[in-house]
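One record is given unchanged without comment:
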Amino acid sequence: MAFGLRKKELCEWKMKIDQGEIAFLTHYWIDDRFPGCKTVTKVGCSDLKKLIEWGEKHGLKPEWIDLRKDGYSHFDLVGERQAEILKKEQLMDHLKRFKEFGNDEATC
C-alpha cells in the first residue's frame, strides 16, 4: 500500500519517464513481504534497455523490473539496497525522507 505521495511528485516522475530519463520516486509503502520497511523508491524509465543497463550497474536483474502496460515500468528498491543505491546516485533528498519518516536508512 502506497501513501505519503504528493500528486506533483508522481506527475514529475511520470514526465521524466515519458522523456526517457531514469526517474526516482520515494514514498511510504507497506508490504507484508518486507516487514519493517516503511519506504520504497521506484526507479523507472520508458526506455527499457536504458533501465536494464542502469539496474545492472547496481546489481539489479532485469527480471526484477515491474513491467507495466501503462508505460511506467520500474524497479522497486527497499531496505539496505534502497539506501545504498540512493547514496551512489547522490539523491540525498530521498535519504533525508527516511529520517523524516522514522526509517533507519541502513536497515529499512
The first helix runs from residue 7 to 18. Residues 103-108 have pLDDT under 50 and may be disordered. Residues 2-95 form one domain. The radius of gyration is 13 Å.
